[in-house]
C-alpha cells in the first residue's frame, strides 16, 4: 500500500458524540430499531439523523428531529406490522377491508407514541438531545385526506380495529393535495392548497411492486373464448396504474399493527411509449400529467358539479386497485378459491363513494375470472356491507347515465343486468306496483337518467347500517323505505364512536392523568369504566382538580387563539364552541343570532350583567357553497364588532378559529365548557364532534338529532340542554307550510336581531354583503332557523343560570365524561365485527424469528 493510499483509508466512525446522562448512553446493539427504552430511542434518533436525514449537526432544525423521531417510531412498529400481516395470511383469519374515499388521520407521531406506550421515553430521549417533545410534535404536517366527520370516522375505526386486534386494511386514495387550507382575509374564507407532502411523509412506505392497472372509457365487445363461450371484453380508451403507499396503524398496548393502503395514480409506461415511438414526446408527457391528475386533489363535499367526471374516476380508480389487491392476496398469498371470498373478507363501503365496487367485483369475477353470474352475485352480496351517512336528498350520490356509460361502459352493462334481475324480484314480491318499481330502480329518471349509487350499494350488500339510532330509523322510513320493506333483515344500526386514545389520552393529558390516578388506567381500552368516576362527583377535592384540568386546557387554547388571531381570551370565561364543517343544516348562524341577541341586550341595557362567554367557531365551507361562505363572513363581522366594543367585550367575545383540522382540534375539544350541536332535527346523521366534547367534559346544548339523542340518554336528560323542534315537528311544520315571517311577528327580539344584520351594523353600514343570508332566513330556509330561535335563546338562558352555579356545572361536567363510555369507537367496531363482519381478535405473537 502506498503512503497516499494509507492516508486515504476510511476510518470506522465513532458514534455521534454522546452527552452524559441516562438517555444518551449508547443503546445495546440491535436495539436501535426496536428498543423501547429512552436510551434506545435516543440512539435511534441519532442514527436516523445521521443515516436518513443527513444534515450536519449545525444545520439540524426541529423539523429534522421530527423526521428522525418519526422514522425511529416507525421502525418500532415494523416488526409488529409484518408479524400481523404474516399471521392473517398464514392463519386465514377473516379480514375487514374498509373502503373509504377519505381517511382524516390527523398527526401520526403523538398517536403512535401513545399506542406504543413510549411517550415518556420519547420525551426523555429528545430532552437528552436538547429538544422538547411538544415542539417536535408541532412540526408535523397532518394528512388532511378528508372533508370532515366521515373521513375522521374512518380513521377512528382503524385505531379501534388495531386496538381490538382485528385484522384489517383501510383502502383509500393518496391525494397529493388534501382538504384546502383555510385562511381568513377581511372576514372571508380564502382557500390555499394543502401541499402536505412537500416535506415528505415519514409514515408511508411506497410499494412499487404492488401496483395494478385500471381501465377507463372506451367500449365493450363480445368474443368467443377458447371453450367457445361468449364473453365480454372491455376495450378501454385509457389505462392508469395505481401505486400503493402503506402506512402502519398501530393498536394501543397490543402487537397488532394493521395497514392503511392508499393508491396513487401514475401513467402506464407502455401507453406513453406509443407516443414516444411516433416521436410525440409532448403527447407522452401530457398523458402522464392527465393520469397523475386522478389522485391529485380531494374534492370538497357540497361542491355541486365541480370535477364530477374526475371524481367518478377517482372513486373507480381506488376501488378497482383495492379489489384487485384483495383478489391477488386471496388467490396468490392465502391460496383460497374465489368461492371462499366472503369467508375471508368483509368489505365495508363507507357511504356510496366506493359503491362502484359492487359492479367492479362482478366484472372481475365474471370477465377476468370466468365465474357465472349467479356465483359472482352470491359472492358479491355476501362480501359487501354499506354504511349510509346522510339523509339529505341532495347529498345522495347519482351519476348522469351518459357520463357513466362513457367512463365505465362495462359497469353500466353490469348495473343494467343487476337492475333487471333485481326489479324482477321486486315485481314478484309486489305485483302490479309499478310506482314502487320506478322508485327502487338503480336507474333514476328525474331530470335526466342517472345511476343511483345508494340503491346499487343497498342491493349489492348483505347489510345496510345508519350511524346513529335516529338516523337508522329515518333511513328505514324515508330514503331506503322501499328497500326496508323488501329486506327488513338487511337493516341495522351502529352508532358512531370516537377513539379515546387520540381524543382523550393524546389531546387531554391533564384529564388523562387525573383519570388514571382516580380510577386506574383500564378506561383507555374499556371506556365504560369511566362510570367509576360517578362516586367522585360530590367530592369537593376531585371537583376542584376537575376544574383545574379544564382551566389549564382553556389557557392552552387561549394561547393558540391569541397566536393565530390576536384575540385575547380569559380562561375563567365560559368557552362555548361550535366546530364542524360550515353548512346551513348545522346552523352556525343560529348560534350567531343568539350572540347578536345578547349584544343587543347589552347595548340597550348598559347596566345588564351576564356571565362572560367566548363563542368559538371553527370549520371550512366548501369553496363553491355561497351561503356557507357568507355564514363565515357573518361570524367574523359580528366578532369584530363585539370584540372591539368596550360596552360588550366585558361579557362577550367571538372567535373564528381559522383552518379547523385534526391538529388544532386537539386543543379545542378539551377546552370546551359548552358544545353546540344545534342542527335541524333529522338532518345530522350522527355527528362525532358531539362525542369528542362529551368525553372531554363539555355539556351539550342540542336538538334531538343524530347521536345527540343517545348522548342525552346516556348523560341523563338533566345533564343536557335540549331545545328545538323534533324531527316529527320539523316535518309537520314543513307540511303545513313554514312561514318564517310569522316568527318575526311574534318575537320582537328576533326581528330586531335580523334588522341589525340587515342594516349593516356588523358590516360598516354595508347592507348588501349579508343580505342573501337574511333573505334566506326569511324567505326560503329549509332548516327552520327562525322556528327554533326562541327555544334556543331561552335554553341558553338556562345554560347561563347553570354556569353561575359552579358546583352544579362541575357535577354535570363530570357526569358527562363518566357516562360517555358508549361513544368509544371500540364499542362501535366491536358491533361491526360481531353483527356485520364476523371478524374476530387475532393476538399477534412477537417472540419469533420473522425472517
Ligand atoms: C360526494 C360527491 C362528490 C364530492 C364529494 C362528496 C362527499 C364527500 C364527503 C360527500 C360527503 C362527504 C362527507 C360526509 C360526511 O362527513 N358525513 C358525516 O359523516 C359523519 C360520520 O358518520 C356523521 O357523523 C355526520 O353526521 C355526517 O354528516
UniProtKB/TrEMBL annotation:
Main enzyme class: transferase
EC numbers, comma separated: 2.4.1.1
TM regions (residue ranges): none
Ranges of compositional bias, category Basic and acidic residues: 1-11
Entry GO MF terms: glycogen phosphorylase activity; pyridoxal phosphate binding
N6-(pyridoxal phosphate)lysine modifications at: 692
Domain of life from the UniProt record: Bacteria
Residue ranges, compositional bias (Low complexity): 17-28
Pfam families found in the cross-reference section: Phosphorylase
Biological processes, Gene Ontology terms: glycogen catabolic process
Cofactor(s) the protein requires to work: pyridoxal 5'-phosphate
Function: Allosteric enzyme that catalyzes the rate-limiting step in glycogen catabolism, the phosphorolytic cleavage of glycogen to produce glucose-1-phosphate, and plays a central role in maintaining cellular and organismal glucose homeostasis.
Protein name: Alpha-1,4 glucan phosphorylase
Organism: Mycolicibacterium phlei DSM 43239 = CCUG 21000
Source lineage: Bacteria, Bacillati, Actinomycetota, Actinomycetes, Mycobacteriales
